[in-house]
Design goal:
The chain has 330 residues and is an all-alpha fold. It contains 19 helices and 2 strands. It is 69% helix and 1% strand. A two-stranded antiparallel sheet has the order 1-2.
């Protein structure tokens, strides 16, 4: 792999917030080059990710600036102090003591875990969910059959300490299933690659975002459009302030707005309608009521047109669109 490919693979293996923070430290040309490499990657073998992480760790160990792998340093120290055999026994015991149940699920998403738990007894599901982070556990629960929700939650409130043997057996079953269902642990589909880039570009500043999208658009116009659409979906307009919404609707004709609102939630419809004049709002309502069935592609194109208008106003500084968590308002 080239240096750029290694950086791209490394960033894709991190969570979005951390990857964006790291990427923002590069200059604009480097961000452009790395983003292109990320978009070109279809899948990354697990062994490749491990090798990139190993190389990264070795580089920092050699720099002496900090120690990313304190366990490795501790192992060397113990071997030197008490000998290899004694240190191995001590470290093996330490690893067993520190190992948490269901660690194999740490890198899985809610969909994968819900597939693994589908059909399992509610008590088993409750036990597994109790060892996940609250956010991940909630997302997994939401993807399970509705009829088991209450039973699982109730059992979670009554959980007793499970025996070590029971947890170990269940942990092995779950670990084997996660490995079986994810043969390519680091697989990156085109859709997930686009989403990752979109989320990262949401966080970096406007000049970097604009140049990256322009450069991607020169080589792959359709992909640049997909990424831009992922950066701000139509339902996200619910988070924009009313003043900005009023500026947006002034730039959009009523027929386009009515078509875009055809599949929108009632809350979002209300958001747009309240920021129109009474006459314009009534016209949009009447158009919606008299509108027959429309192809979904036409509705989505109308939504994209409004989103593009909002992006344009955002770049001009006329409005503020919601960005990533690191965006600051001044």
């Amino acid at each position: 792999m080239t240096g750029r490919q290694k950086v791209a693979a490394f960033l894709l293996s991190l969570d979005t917030q951390t990857a964006a923070s790291v990427l923002s430290k590069f200059n604009e040309q480097e961000i452009d080059n790395i983003s292109r490499e990320m978009l070109e990657m279809r899948s990354i073998e697990h062994c490749v990710i491990e090798e990139v992480h190993r190389e990264f760790s070795e580089m920092f160990l050699g720099s002496r600036q900090f120690i990313p792998d304190t366990r490795a340093a501790a192992e060397k120290l113990l071997v030197s102090a008490i000998g290899e055999e004694k240190s191995r026994l001590m470290l093996d015991g330490s690893s067993q003591a520190r190992r948490k149940p269901f660690e194999a699920l740490a890198g899985a998403d809610a969909r994968q875990i819900s597939e693994i738990l589908k059909g399992e007894h509610p008590q088993t599901v409750a036990l597994v969910l109790s060892h996940l982070t609250p956010q991940l556990a909630g997302n997994v629960l939401a993807k399970l059959a509705e009829e088991v929700h209450s039973e699982v939650v109730l059992r979670m409130t009554r959980l007793e300490n499970a025996s070590g043997d029971m947890l170990e057996r269940l942990d092995k079953i779950v670990s084997d299933k996660i490995v079986a269902t994810t043969p390519e642990v680091g697989a990156v589909s085109e859709e997930s690659g686009n989403k990752m880039v979109a989320e990262i570009l949401n966080i970096v500043n406007k000049s970097i975002r604009k140049k990256a999208l322009e450069d991607i658009g020169k080589e792959a116009p359709e992909r640049a459009k997909q990424i831009e659409n992922l950066m701000f979906v139509f339902e996200d307009f619910i988070s924009i302030d009313d003043r900005s919404v009023r500026k947006i609707v002034m730039e959009v004709d009523n027929d386009t707005l009515a078509l875009a609102l055809k599949t929108a939630s009632e809350e979002l419809k209300g958001k747009f309608l309240k920021n129109l004049s009474k006459r314009a709002a009534q016209m949009v309502i009447e158009t919606l009521e008299n509108m027959g069935p429309k192809p979904l592609s036409e509705v989505e194109e109308a939504q994209h047109e409004i989103t593009r208008t909002a992006h344009s106003l955002d770049e001009q500084g006329e409005i503020v669109m919601r960005r990533g968590e690191q965006e600051q308002l001044v």
